[in-house]
Amino acid sequence: MTDKAIIKRLFYQHYGEMTRLARMLLYSDDEAEDVVQDIFLRLMEAGTLPDKGKARAYLLSAVRNGCVNRIRRKSLTERVKNLYPIEAETELQDWERRMEMAEAVSDFAESHLTEPQLTIFRLRFEEGLKLREIAQKMDMNIKTVFKHLSQTIKYIRQQKF
Amino acid sequence: METNNNITRLLEMLENPEAYSEQEISDIINSDDDTREAYRMMVAARQGYHSRNKKGGDVDKAWRRIERSHLKVSFFHSPIRKMAAAIAALLVVSAIAFAAFSIARLKQAPPATQNPTTITNNTARTNNQKADVNQPDTARSRTATTEPIVFDNIPLEQMLTEIAAHYGADVEFSNDEARQLRFHFVWHREKGLDKVVDDLNHFESVDVALQGQHITVE
User: Fold this and answer.
1) Which residues of chain B have pLDDT under 70?
2) What is the pLDDT at residue A123?
């Protein structure tokens, strides 16, 4: 099998998991695609292959590094605006544990929150809307939205997340 | 109580971070452990929802995109490219010399009638003849005049590649089927690239966009 054929096989094998990790860290389909594409382009240009049996770990680490680099290039204001980790380098060191925690938080919210807290939580963290946009969308007073979200955050934090 | 106030300040800041300096943002997030952890939890919630989204992209399309990018990169780093650059430089020097010689002769010759150059898609022609479209002696002479060029039943990809090269632009097809669309199109090279793109958009079956020096075919 040629190097290109091996790279193609690796791509088809790991593309789904790689884009999912990149999407989880960057919140953007397009940026996630770009990170994965860059990794495979570099492999093709360098003509080097990851060690047999370590390909998955190598590729997922490359995704994590690519995402951290992109987040680092953003200003602190941009990072908090999009709710990126403020110290991506250290906070995403152990990305597998991070991924588990992230899924645990959203799973907990989906299974324990009631309305209207659940919809507010989804709109804020899934859609990335500002509170005033949520208030407009739900036809609520912004102070009410603020109060609900504040209570929800305290409630989830009490679960040791 | 202090922590409650800090989390309230955190939510207020996140609503409009542009109104705060980077130092103020950092101070608010790091007010105390609880506030810092509350921010981390919010980041985790955002990540968690994006991780729940299991939709996979089109893997075949993604692979084709990588192959295309790789081809471009390979070309720009290959020895063939260096050779091509040397040949191009030689052609430019020759063209300048030829142009200088032609100008001198034209000053003495009577004006000739300008006829449009027609590029047709004659399926019967041989490969050698086919080269007329891309690298002909007529192409060199076309660049030296302003006569219109008529593309007659030529695939859009071939047509746009030649047009783009003339303006120093590049072309991207986001729709592969569009590559093989064939048109009868009269190209007036004295027009700007934006006007030529407008003219192409008169064809219903094609949607061409121009951004800077980048042409995209939808």
Assistant:
1) 1-3, 54-57, 70-86, 89, 101-146, 204
2) 96
What residue in B sits closest to A129 (Cα-Cα)? B15
- Between the two ends of chain A, the Cα-to-Cα distance in Å is 47
Show the tokens assigned to A147: 């109060």
Instruction: At B104, give phi and psi (nearest 5°).
Output: -60, -40
Phi then psi dihedrals of residue A64, to 5 deg: -55, -45
Over residues B106-157, the pLDDT tens digits come to: 666 554 444 556 666 554 333 333 333 333 333 333 444 567 888 777 888 8
Going by C-alpha positions, the residue among B198, B25, B58, B171 that lies closest to residue A83 is B25
pTM for the whole structure: 0.58
> Are residues A24 and B47, on separate chains, in Cβ contact within 8 Å?
yes
The ipTM, to two decimals, is 0.88
How far is the alpha carbon of A47 from chain B, nearest alpha carbon, in Å? 12
Does A150 contact chain B (CB < 8 Å)? yes
Q: Is some CB atom of chain B closer than 8 A to the CB atom of A84?
A: yes
Render chain A in DSSP notation, one character per residue: --HHHHHHHHHHHHHHHHHHHHHHHH--HHHHHHHHHHHHHHHHHHT--PPTT-HHHHHHHHHHHHHHHHHHTS-HHHHHHTT--TTHHHHTTTHHHHHHHHHHHHHHHHHH--TTHHHHHHHHHTS---HHHHHHHHT--HHHHHHHHHHHHHHHHHTT-
Look at residues B45, B53, B3, B14 and name the one whose alpha carbon lies nearest to residue A156: B45
